[in-house]
Design goal:
Layout (H helix, E strand, L loop, with lengths): L2 E2 L11 H14 L2 E5 L8 H4 L9 H10 L5 E8 L5 E13 L6 H11 L7 E7 L13 H21 L4 E8 L3 H4 L8 E12 L5 H8 L2 H17 L2 E6 L6 H14 L9 H10 L4 E8 L2 E11 L2 E9 L9 H15 L4 E4 L4 H6 L3 E11 L2 H14 L23
Parallel strand pairs: 1-2, 5-6, 11-12
Antiparallel strand pairs: 2-3, 3-4, 4-5, 6-13, 7-12, 7-13, 8-9, 9-10, 10-11
């Protein structure tokens, strides 16, 4: 597989021994990897159908690139066949990554002392394959193509990372669907560690009352009913479902920011433009559930609907009212009622805030990080350090989920 890694000023040249390995793989798979900006693929049929079965399709990647610009440099791996046709497109981006994010207070405290002398200690320029605002997927429609993409990228990606002075390469938060294919990355020096998982709840119930009586514990069921009753006594809340929140964007963003700031683990910071455009660019998938009090939005939940699944993506709350009115529980109850009434088979949620999801009887959906340092010596040490730096170690609530073991699985 002959690989072309083009930066703004130079084109990578593979070492002779790597060329031999790459050519053998190209002969076997018939795939060539190139790197392009979005402009080079924007009008291609392959890009139009990329990730078409996922809730975050190619339109979402374009939205993220256009609206989340601070700190991210977006590029695309393009895999072409022998006749030059595009077989797959795999987005990636470059950023400065703090390896200690999510490592816990004790390690963070020790690192802060080191950073007084060495400011960039465990901060590295990183090439990340995947999505800057969401989980990653391989652009494949079957298992064979998944394996071919993983093999092609595994053999070529470190060369391109070096041309951009990226010390670290990460396949960011790939789902369990791609785990078998990405297992080949171990042969190229990558280490798989768990990232903070998503969650999922099957909605095989005729209504929310049946869900509560059959799925929830008696204690939590009583608490949920009590909280919803108290909320109704204290305020009259109305739920509206809209696609385009541009008319409400100032209210929405002022509710989102406090949630972002309170999070212990931060990665992407969304922009007002992101919230406005997602409904305009993806009207068939984007839904905003707005909780209104006296005509004012007091909480919202951005969800993406894909087939028979509804996924909670981002939330916002008026914290002056959130606890007194039990807004999280009320909003979750209302959204799940809507999902059941509208034929959704699954209700999913992105990572973090696991305690209420545990009580709502979600199961964990693993997300994997595949990590490798450009230096073999550093990578040898880092593979062992990652066992202590991976973020799930410090969340005790995760261990209470029945399928917690799935985060690591049986594969190394």
């Amino acid at each position: 597989m002959r690989t072309y890694a083009q930066s703004a000023a130079s084109q990578a040249v593979l070492p002779v021994e790597f060329q031999s390995q790459a050519e053998k793989l190209e002969a076997r798979l018939g795939l060539t990897v190139k790197v392009t900006p979005r402009a080079a693929i924007r009008d291609s049929a392959a890009w139009a159908r990329a990730f078409e079965n996922q809730r975050k399709d190619s339109r979402y990647y374009e939205l993220v690139e256009d609206t989340l610009r601070e700190g991210f440099d977006y590029r695309y791996f393009v895999l072409t066949g022998e006749s030059g046709e595009i077989r797959a497109v795999q987005p990636f981006f470059l950023l400065d990554q703090d390896l200690l994010a999510g490592s816990g207070a004790r390690i963070g405290k020790a690192a802060s002392r080191i950073r007084r002398i060495w400011p960039r200690f465990l901060r590295m320029r990183t090439l990340m394959v995947g999505c800057a605002a969401g989980e990653g997927h391989l652009d494949a429609r079957d298992d064979r193509m998944r394996s071919e993409i993983a093999l092609s990228l595994g053999a070529s990606i470190m060369d391109y990372a070096r041309t951009l002075n990226a010390s670290l390469v990460v396949f960011k938060e790939f789902t369990i669907e791609d785990r078998a294919a990405l297992a080949c990355l171990k042969d190229y020096g990558f280490t798989r560690i768990p990232s903070m998982p998503m969650t999922r709840r099957r909605l095989n119930f005729s209504n929310f009352e049946e869900y509560m009586s059959k799925a929830l514990s008696q204690k939590f069921r009583a608490q949920l009913r009590r909280n919803c009753r108290k909320s109704a006594e204290r305020a009259k809340l109305e739920m509206r479902v809209v696609t385009d929140v541009t008319p409400y964007i100032e209210e929405i963003y002022n509710l989102y920011l406090p949630v972002y700031e309170r999070s212990e683990l931060k990665f992407e910071k969304l922009t007002p433009e992101y919230f406005s455009r997602i409904g305009q660019d993806m009207p068939d998938k984007a839904l905003f559930f707005l909780m209104m009090k006296d005509g004012k939005i007091v909480s919202f939940n951005l969800c993406l609907k894909n087939g028979n699944e509804l996924c909670s993506e981002y939330v916002g709350f008026d914290y002056a009212l959130a606890f007194d009115l039990h807004l999280y529980n009320v909003m979750t109850k209302n959204i799940m009622e809507w999902a059941i009434a509208n034929g959704c088979e699954f209700y999913r949620s992105t990572s973090l805030n696991y305690e209420p999801k545990y009580h709502f009887r979600h199961e964990l959906e693993p997300l994997d990080l595949y990590v490798r340092h450009a230096s073999r010596a550093v990578n040898f040490i880092m593979r062992r350090a990652l066992l202590y730096l991976e973020p799930t170690r410090n969340d005790a609530m995760l261990k209470r989920f029945p399928n917690y073991a799935d985060l690591r699985g049986n594969q190394p």
